[in-house]
Write a structure and sequence with these properties.
With 47 residues, this protein is an all-alpha fold. Helices cover 74% and strands 0% of the residues. It holds the Pfam family YjiS-like.
Length: 47
C-alpha cells in the first residue's frame, strides 16, 4: 500500500511540475511562485 501511495504522490508531483512549468514568469509571480521554486512548491504540495 505504501508503494502505491508513493507512486501516486510522485505522479501528482510530476503533473504539478509540468503544469507550473507551462506558466510564464508573470503568471507564476501572480500566485507568489518564482520559476526557480516550481519543484520545491510541487514537492511541498504532493509529499
Amino acid at each position: 500500500m505504501m508503494m502505491v501511495r508513493s507512486f501516486s504522490n510522485w505522479l501528482k508531483y510530476r503533473q504539478a511540475v509540468s503544469q507550473l512549468s507551462h506558466l510564464n514568469a508573470r503568471k507564476l509571480a501572480d500566485v507568489g511562485i518564482a520559476p526557480a521554486e516550481i519543484r520545491a512548491v510541487a514537492r511541498k504540495a504532493c509529499f
